[in-house]
Protein backbone atom coordinates (compact mmCIF):
# COMPACT_ATOMS: atom_id res chain seq x y z
CA UNK A 1 0.00 0.00 0.00
CA UNK A 2 0.95 3.64 -0.33
CA UNK A 3 2.24 5.70 2.58
CA UNK A 4 -1.02 7.51 3.31
CA UNK A 5 -2.93 4.22 3.50
CA UNK A 6 -0.36 2.75 5.89
CA UNK A 7 -0.53 5.86 8.08
CA UNK A 8 -4.33 5.77 8.15
CA UNK A 9 -4.23 2.08 9.07
CA UNK A 10 -1.95 2.93 12.00
CA UNK A 11 -4.46 5.45 13.35
CA UNK A 12 -7.39 3.07 12.86
CA UNK A 13 -5.49 0.12 14.33
CA UNK A 14 -4.58 1.85 17.56
CA UNK A 15 -8.01 3.38 18.06
CA UNK A 16 -9.62 0.00 17.37
CA UNK A 17 -7.63 -1.87 20.03
CA UNK A 18 -8.08 0.74 22.77
CA UNK A 19 -11.39 -0.75 24.03
CA UNK A 20 -9.82 -4.23 23.93
CA UNK A 21 -6.66 -3.46 25.92
CA UNK A 22 -7.98 -0.74 28.23
CA UNK A 23 -7.29 -1.69 31.84
CA UNK A 24 -5.31 -4.82 30.94
CA UNK A 25 -1.64 -5.68 31.38
CA UNK A 26 0.57 -7.09 28.63
CA UNK A 27 4.28 -7.91 28.98
CA UNK A 28 4.45 -5.81 32.12
CA UNK A 29 2.75 -2.80 30.51
CA UNK A 30 -0.48 -1.55 32.09
CA UNK A 31 -2.89 0.02 29.60
CA UNK A 32 -4.60 2.97 31.28
CA UNK A 33 -5.26 5.02 28.18
CA UNK A 34 -6.75 8.48 28.48
CA UNK A 35 -7.40 10.92 25.62
CA UNK A 36 -3.70 11.86 25.50
CA UNK A 37 -2.59 8.26 25.17
CA UNK A 38 -5.21 7.55 22.52
CA UNK A 39 -4.07 10.52 20.40
CA UNK A 40 -0.39 9.84 21.00
CA UNK A 41 -0.78 6.14 20.30
CA UNK A 42 -2.66 6.82 17.08
CA UNK A 43 0.10 9.08 15.77
CA UNK A 44 2.92 6.85 17.02
CA UNK A 45 1.25 3.86 15.36
CA UNK A 46 0.74 5.85 12.15
CA UNK A 47 4.42 6.77 12.07
CA UNK A 48 5.51 3.24 12.95
CA UNK A 49 3.28 1.87 10.20
CA UNK A 50 5.61 3.60 7.73
CA UNK A 51 8.91 2.37 9.22
CA UNK A 52 9.12 -0.89 7.19
CA UNK A 53 9.22 1.16 3.98
CA UNK A 54 12.52 2.73 5.02
CA UNK A 55 13.98 0.08 2.76
CA UNK A 56 12.69 1.99 -0.31
CA UNK A 57 14.46 5.12 -1.53
CA UNK A 58 11.27 6.81 -2.74
CA UNK A 59 8.96 6.03 0.20
CA UNK A 60 7.22 8.69 2.28
CA UNK A 61 9.31 8.00 5.37
CA UNK A 62 12.59 8.03 3.43
CA UNK A 63 11.80 11.52 2.12
CA UNK A 64 10.68 12.90 5.50
CA UNK A 65 13.96 13.93 7.16
CA UNK A 66 16.21 14.52 4.16
CA UNK A 67 19.75 13.15 4.26
CA UNK A 68 19.23 11.36 7.58
CA UNK A 69 16.33 9.17 6.46
CA UNK A 70 17.83 8.68 2.98
CA UNK A 71 21.07 7.40 4.54
CA UNK A 72 19.12 5.17 6.92
CA UNK A 73 17.08 3.90 3.99
CA UNK A 74 20.20 2.91 2.07
CA UNK A 75 21.56 1.13 5.14
CA UNK A 76 18.37 -0.85 5.81
CA UNK A 77 17.98 -1.68 2.13
CA UNK A 78 21.47 -3.20 2.20
CA UNK A 79 21.06 -4.94 5.58
CA UNK A 80 17.68 -6.51 4.86
CA UNK A 81 18.03 -7.47 1.21
CA UNK A 82 16.12 -4.77 -0.67
CA UNK A 83 12.53 -3.58 -0.68
CA UNK A 84 9.86 -5.73 0.99
CA UNK A 85 12.28 -8.26 2.38
CA UNK A 86 13.71 -8.20 5.91
CA UNK A 87 12.03 -4.97 6.99
CA UNK A 88 8.69 -6.64 6.28
CA UNK A 89 9.22 -9.57 8.62
CA UNK A 90 8.04 -10.48 12.10
CA UNK A 91 11.68 -10.33 13.19
CA UNK A 92 11.90 -6.67 12.15
CA UNK A 93 8.69 -5.77 14.02
CA UNK A 94 10.04 -7.48 17.14
CA UNK A 95 13.38 -5.69 16.85
CA UNK A 96 11.74 -2.28 16.39
CA UNK A 97 9.42 -2.81 19.34
CA UNK A 98 12.23 -4.04 21.59
CA UNK A 99 14.61 -1.22 20.65
CA UNK A 100 11.91 1.37 21.25
CA UNK A 101 11.03 -0.10 24.64
CA UNK A 102 14.71 -0.10 25.65
CA UNK A 103 14.85 3.54 24.56
CA UNK A 104 11.86 4.30 26.80
CA UNK A 105 13.56 2.64 29.77
CA UNK A 106 16.84 4.41 29.09
CA UNK A 107 15.73 8.04 28.77
CA UNK A 108 12.39 9.90 28.96
CA UNK A 109 13.94 12.68 26.86
CA UNK A 110 14.93 10.19 24.16
CA UNK A 111 11.32 8.98 24.08
CA UNK A 112 10.03 12.52 23.58
CA UNK A 113 12.46 13.02 20.68
CA UNK A 114 11.43 9.71 19.13
CA UNK A 115 7.75 10.58 19.53
CA UNK A 116 8.41 13.91 17.80
CA UNK A 117 10.09 12.10 14.89
CA UNK A 118 7.29 9.54 14.58
CA UNK A 119 4.59 12.22 14.65
CA UNK A 120 6.43 14.09 11.89
CA UNK A 121 6.53 10.89 9.83
CA UNK A 122 2.84 10.31 10.54
CA UNK A 123 1.94 13.84 9.48
CA UNK A 124 3.78 13.33 6.20
CA UNK A 125 2.06 10.01 5.67
CA UNK A 126 -1.34 11.53 6.38
CA UNK A 127 -0.71 14.23 3.78
CA UNK A 128 0.74 17.14 5.76
CA UNK A 129 4.04 17.74 4.03
CA UNK A 130 4.06 16.26 0.54
CA UNK A 131 2.80 19.38 -1.16
CA UNK A 132 3.66 21.36 -4.29
CA UNK A 133 5.19 24.07 -2.11
CA UNK A 134 7.52 21.67 -0.32
CA UNK A 135 9.31 24.25 1.86
CA UNK A 136 6.10 25.77 3.21
CA UNK A 137 4.60 22.34 3.76
CA UNK A 138 7.67 21.19 5.71
CA UNK A 139 7.54 24.28 7.93
CA UNK A 140 3.84 23.73 8.64
CA UNK A 141 4.51 20.06 9.32
CA UNK A 142 7.35 20.86 11.73
CA UNK A 143 5.31 23.46 13.62
CA UNK A 144 2.30 21.16 13.84
CA UNK A 145 4.44 18.24 14.97
CA UNK A 146 6.16 20.35 17.62
CA UNK A 147 2.83 21.68 18.86
CA UNK A 148 1.28 18.23 19.15
CA UNK A 149 4.36 16.76 20.86
CA UNK A 150 4.48 19.64 23.35
CA UNK A 151 0.75 19.40 24.07
CA UNK A 152 1.07 15.66 24.74
CA UNK A 153 4.09 16.27 26.99
CA UNK A 154 2.45 19.02 29.05
CA UNK A 155 -0.66 16.87 29.50
CA UNK A 156 1.49 14.18 31.12
CA UNK A 157 1.02 11.51 28.44
CA UNK A 158 2.38 8.15 29.55
CA UNK A 159 4.53 6.32 26.96
CA UNK A 160 5.16 3.07 28.84
CA UNK A 161 3.39 1.28 25.95
CA UNK A 162 5.44 2.83 23.14
CA UNK A 163 7.44 -0.29 22.26
CA UNK A 164 4.27 -2.31 21.79
CA UNK A 165 2.73 0.50 19.71
CA UNK A 166 5.73 0.61 17.38
CA UNK A 167 5.72 -3.17 16.91
CA UNK A 168 1.95 -3.06 16.33
CA UNK A 169 2.37 -0.30 13.75
CA UNK A 170 4.86 -2.46 11.84
CA UNK A 171 2.45 -5.40 11.96
CA UNK A 172 -0.31 -3.19 10.56
CA UNK A 173 2.02 -2.28 7.71
CA UNK A 174 2.55 -5.97 6.96
CA UNK A 175 -1.20 -6.59 7.00
CA UNK A 176 -1.71 -3.80 4.50
CA UNK A 177 1.01 -5.09 2.19
CA UNK A 178 -0.30 -8.65 2.42
CA UNK A 179 -3.49 -7.31 0.90
CA UNK A 180 -1.54 -6.22 -2.19
CA UNK A 181 -0.13 -8.27 -5.06
CA UNK A 182 3.49 -8.34 -3.89
CA UNK A 183 2.88 -9.85 -0.44
CA UNK A 184 5.43 -9.91 2.41
CA UNK A 185 8.04 -12.44 3.64
CA UNK A 186 6.83 -12.61 7.24
CA UNK A 187 9.23 -15.41 8.24
CA UNK A 188 12.39 -13.83 6.76
CA UNK A 189 15.25 -14.89 7.05
CA UNK A 190 14.01 -18.44 7.72
CA UNK A 191 11.77 -18.35 4.65
CA UNK A 192 11.38 -15.90 1.77
CA UNK A 193 7.83 -17.04 0.98
CA UNK A 194 5.63 -13.98 0.48
CA UNK A 195 2.31 -14.17 2.26
CA UNK A 196 -0.44 -12.74 0.04
CA UNK A 197 1.61 -12.66 -3.16
CA UNK A 198 -0.44 -12.48 -6.39
CA UNK A 199 -3.69 -12.44 -4.42
CA UNK A 200 -4.53 -8.88 -3.39
CA UNK A 201 -5.09 -5.53 -5.10
CA UNK A 202 -2.59 -3.35 -6.93
CA UNK A 203 -0.68 -0.77 -4.89
CA UNK A 204 -2.12 2.72 -5.52
CA UNK A 205 -4.72 1.19 -7.82
CA UNK A 206 -8.43 1.92 -7.97
CA UNK A 207 -9.28 -0.35 -5.04
CA UNK A 208 -6.78 1.35 -2.72
CA UNK A 209 -7.69 4.87 -3.81
CA UNK A 210 -11.46 4.46 -4.07
CA UNK A 211 -12.21 1.83 -1.42
CA UNK A 212 -9.43 1.29 1.11
CA UNK A 213 -8.49 4.92 1.80
CA UNK A 214 -12.10 6.20 2.12
CA UNK A 215 -13.01 3.28 4.40
CA UNK A 216 -10.03 3.94 6.69
CA UNK A 217 -10.94 7.62 6.85
CA UNK A 218 -14.55 6.84 7.76
CA UNK A 219 -13.33 4.36 10.40
CA UNK A 220 -11.25 7.12 12.06
CA UNK A 221 -14.30 9.39 12.26
CA UNK A 222 -16.52 6.65 13.71
CA UNK A 223 -13.89 5.54 16.24
CA UNK A 224 -13.31 9.15 17.29
CA UNK A 225 -17.01 9.56 18.03
CA UNK A 226 -16.99 6.29 19.98
CA UNK A 227 -13.80 6.83 22.00
CA UNK A 228 -13.86 10.50 22.96
CA UNK A 229 -16.39 12.05 25.39
CA UNK A 230 -17.56 14.77 23.02
CA UNK A 231 -20.42 15.79 25.33
CA UNK A 232 -17.81 16.76 27.92
CA UNK A 233 -15.62 18.57 25.39
CA UNK A 234 -18.22 20.57 23.47
CA UNK A 235 -20.22 23.28 25.27
CA UNK A 236 -23.92 22.67 25.71
CA UNK A 237 -26.23 24.51 23.31
TrEMBL record:
Record carries keyword Heme: no
InterPro entries: YdjM-like
Molecular-function GO term, any one: hydrolase activity
Chain segments annotated as transmembrane: 64-80, 92-123, 135-153, 211-230
Any Pfam family the entry gives: YdjM
UniProtKB keywords: Hydrolase, Membrane, Transmembrane, Transmembrane helix
PANTHER family cross-referenced by the UniProt entry: INNER MEMBRANE PROTEIN YBCI-RELATED (PTHR35531:SF1)
Protein name, per record: Membrane-bound metal-dependent hydrolase YbcI (DUF457 family)
Amino acid sequence: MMGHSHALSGVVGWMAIVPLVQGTEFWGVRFDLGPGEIIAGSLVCAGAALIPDLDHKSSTITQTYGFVTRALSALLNWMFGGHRNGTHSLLFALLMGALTQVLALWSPLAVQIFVFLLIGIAMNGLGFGMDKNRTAAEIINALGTAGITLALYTSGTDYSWIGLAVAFGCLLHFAGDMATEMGVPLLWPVSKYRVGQNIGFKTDGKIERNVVTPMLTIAIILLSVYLFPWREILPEA
